[in-house]
Amino acid sequence: MVDQFKFDKLRKLREAGINPYPYTYDQTHHAEEIIAKYNSLEGKSVKVAGRIRSMRHMGKLFFLDLLDETGKIQILVRGDAASGKSIALMDMVDTGDILGISGKVTKSARGEISIDAHEITMLAKSLLTLPEKFHGLSDTEIRYRKRYLDLIMNPNVRATFQMRAKIVSYIRNFLNERGYVEFETPVLQPTYGGANAAPFKTYYNALDTEVFLRIADELYLKRLIIGGFEKVYEFGHDFRNEDIDSTHNPEFTQVEFYEAYKDYSDYMKMTEEMLSGLVKHINGSYEIAYQGKVLNFKPPFKRLYWVDELKKITGIDISEMSDADAKRLAEKEGLDTSIKNAYHVADGLFDKYIQPELWDPTFVLDYPAYMCPLTKDKRGNAMLSERYELFIAGKEGGNCYSELTDPVEQRKKFEAQEEERRKGDTEAPPSDSDFIEAIEYGMPPTAGMGIGIDRLVMILTNNVSIKEVIAFPAVRPESKKVSETPLQGKPEGKKVKPESKKK
Q1: Of 222, 146, 248, 265, residue with least CA distance to 404
Q2: 3 state DSSP class of 457
Q3: Strands 71-77 and 113-124
């Protein structure tokens, strides 16, 4: 609820002829720059702008901590230096207000780099009280629901999102420098595909048809390869209508990239180069700390063959598994798998026996063919597919195929998926007849890769929850009604699988 004390000050500002919400301010410097370049800026006039995080005063001397995008700097407001108008304004200033400060760079009596204010401008009068300074904002529900408040109160949160931007920028530059072309493909799709997941549904009024929010970008990017582009990528927001946990959010970000005339072996080398270079770029070395342990991104990454590894650990060979076999195994192994077909039971066995042991970046290779409807068979072994997933710190971080380009085989695999849907597997995507028609025109050999940006940022910023790295994560709606305030008046009346490109 609006603070009545602050609201009264807003009224006084207006009565004094001061616009508490002006249109612009001529900011010339930021806190970080002033502190870094103090020797060259000392005694010079600057203009800064930001939010007042704390205030204190000794007689007629005010100390303000001003927070801008880059950090905090101290403001000194003295009666013999600041204008009379600015001194008068201080009676109407509160913690949380956004001010513009014009003054000279100096140091306080205690040696802290500061700005000796001459002119103070109100840029936004705050009407709500910030959380108490020393205890900060720690309630996770409030932090995620009111991220703007989290960003104000917690500098480490701002640092996380600044790092996220650097990670995305590095990957984009890496692909651009290698001749990849960035595209935007449809978010609303008549037929969803490219992963095993439940979709969000909506309705296209103009087209009078039901459509789906995409669960992956894959099938449209492959259409671009068919159309003649040889290297394409997209940073896409994708949507999977499933449960939320520490590593899953229904709306998530991934980068998918495809290159003609390459296979999954080529992309293993490129993925190593991309991620090891990224970690070295942001951290200065290949090693990073994650949850009290060390992760080593120095190439080459470890290779592990899934079917062989599971057989070695358990004696179970899953390269061929019927649905009847799957049901028996699920019961025997006590798997918490709601859909007990070969796909889901194999996945459950992997989650139980292999995934928890994967720490340093590891390529898990050659999945059972029945799990990979968009992938070419393994050369020399049709029971397997040329697919790998990249795991880091026990989490899936990426997924790659030697893409299936045979339209006859692709149609058969889509039909097999449709059969699973008829049996009750709601995560199996439908057939896409338009995509079949596209590859019937001819699709070159292609490698495709998807990397989940949210999980990668989690690891590189040492976070254990995906909500910490998504600016506005999914949260349950508040049950409380909007409180009446002086300004507002009366108010009017299942576990998702990893967020890489495909499963």
Answers
A1: 222
A2: helix
A3: parallel
> Considering the domain boundaries, does residue 139 fall inside one?
no
Question: Domain holding 31: CATH number?
Answer: 2.40.50.140
If DSSP codes are grouped into helix, strand and coil, which group holds residue 416? helix
- Count of domains observed in the chain: 2
Q: How far apart are CA 337 and CA 352, in angstroms?
A: 11
Query: For residue 322, how far is the Cα from the chain centroid?
Result: 37
What is the pLDDT tens value at each position of the chain, 503 positions in all? 788 999 999 999 999 999 999 999 999 999 999 999 999 999 999 999 999 999 998 888 999 999 999 999 999 999 889 999 999 999 999 999 999 999 999 999 999 999 999 999 999 999 999 987 545 677 888 899 999 999 999 999 999 999 999 999 999 999 999 999 999 999 999 999 999 999 999 999 999 999 999 999 999 999 999 999 999 999 999 999 988 999 999 999 999 999 999 999 999 999 999 999 999 999 999 999 999 999 999 999 999 999 999 999 999 898 888 888 888 888 888 998 878 888 899 999 999 999 999 999 999 999 999 999 999 999 999 999 999 999 999 999 999 999 999 999 999 999 999 998 898 888 888 999 999 999 999 999 999 999 999 999 999 999 999 999 999 999 988 765 444 444 433 333 344 344 444 43
Query: Does 492 reside within a domain?
Result: no
Whether residue 60 sits in one domain with residue 180: no
**H-type alpha helices, 300-425:** 306-314, 323-333, 342-353, 407-422
357, amino acid identity? E
In terms of Cβ atoms closer than 10 Å to its own Cβ (0-12, 13-18, 19+), residue 141 is exposed
Q: What is the DSSP string of 351-369?
A: HHHTGGG--S-EEEE--BG
Give the structural domain span for 102. Answer: 4-130
The Cα 122–Cα 454 span in angstroms is 38
Instruction: State which of 82, 99, 130 marks the end of a domain.
Output: 130
Considering 130, 164, 186, which residue would you say is the last residue of a domain? 130
Kindly state the DSSP code that residue 496 receives in the 8-state scheme: P
Comparing CA positions, the residue from 260, 187, 176, 192 lying closest to residue 226 is: 260
**Exposed, middle or buried: residue 31 (CB in 10 Å: 0-12, 13-18, 19+)?**
buried
If asked whether residues 124 and 158 sit together in one domain, one would say no
How many CA atoms does the CB half-sphere of 307 hold within 13 Å? 18
CA distance linking residue 105 with residue 116, whole number of Å: 6
d(CA 331, CA 398): 30
Q: Which residue has the tokens 């040696």?
A: 111
Are residues 466 and 144 in contact, defined by beta-carbon separation less than 8 angstroms? no
Q: Is residue 180 part of a domain?
A: yes
Cα separation, 209 vs 186, in Å, equals: 15
